[in-house]
Design a protein that fits this description.
Length: 218
């Protein structure tokens, strides 16, 4: 019995020694195992720092976005100016067309006034002449304020763009193709001729100098 007890105590002591050695080995191995974990943490932190944008990058990005919005604004502003200009031009053209129609309807009235004035002058109707002349003057003033220009080219070089020749008259005293008589005055608004003047044109005279024709064109 004593021999068996000695063997048991020896086995217990051996087991305790093995446990102590294992704990000691684990304690020594723990710091070694911890070293790779710390190194991995350092690598992850460095990667996060590399991926995070710097302050300069953020400023550059903000400036690029601001420049893009400014460019969009400038383009929109230019398109709006173009639209507004075209709209104003269209309105102006519509106003001119409306005025042209009104003037066209009034021109025969002007013709009647002028015929009445001519009749009164030839027949000595003084009172009638005075009244008709005043009404005629008022009507012409209204048209002039609306932008109408009278085409009365008597004595001037013939311009086919503003006058219509209804007859030729021999006249050697003035340059060739000079307007001699105006049967019916013409009218224009701006550069557009609403109605050309009806005139007679001379022929047989000296040729007109080119400089004079150029001055007339100007």
């Amino acid at each position: 019995m004593e021999e068996h007890q000695d063997h048991t105590e020896q086995a217990t002591d051996a087991a305790e020694d093995s446990t102590v050695e294992a704990q000691a080995a684990g304690a020594e191995a723990a710091p070694a195992a911890g070293q790779p974990a710390e190194a991995a943490g350092d690598v992850d932190a460095a990667a996060d720092e590399a991926e995070a944008p710097s302050a300069d990058d953020a400023v550059a990005k903000a400036k690029a976005e601001a420049a893009e919005w400014q460019d969009r604004f400038m383009r929109l502003h230019a398109e709006w100016d173009t639209y507004r200009r075209r709209t104003n031009e269209q309105r102006e053209e519509e106003r001119k067309r409306a005025n042209e129609k009104l003037v066209g309807n009034l021109l025969p009235v002007l013709d009647d006034f002028e015929r009445s004035i001519e009749y009164a002058v030839k027949n000595g109707e003084g009172d009638l002449l005075d009244g008709v002349q005043k009404v005629h003057t008022k009507l012409v003033d209204v048209l002039v304020k609306a932008g109408v220009e009278v085409i009365d080219p008597a004595g001037q070089p013939f311009d086919a763009l503003e006058a219509q020749a209804v007859a030729k008259v021999d006249n050697t005293q003035v340059p060739d193709e000079t307007v001699q008589d105006v049967y019916q005055k013409g009218y224009k608004m701006g550069k557009k001729v609403i109605r050309p003047a009806m005139v007679t044109v001379t022929s047989g005279g000296p040729k007109r100098e080119k400089k004079e024709e150029a001055d007339k064109a100007e």
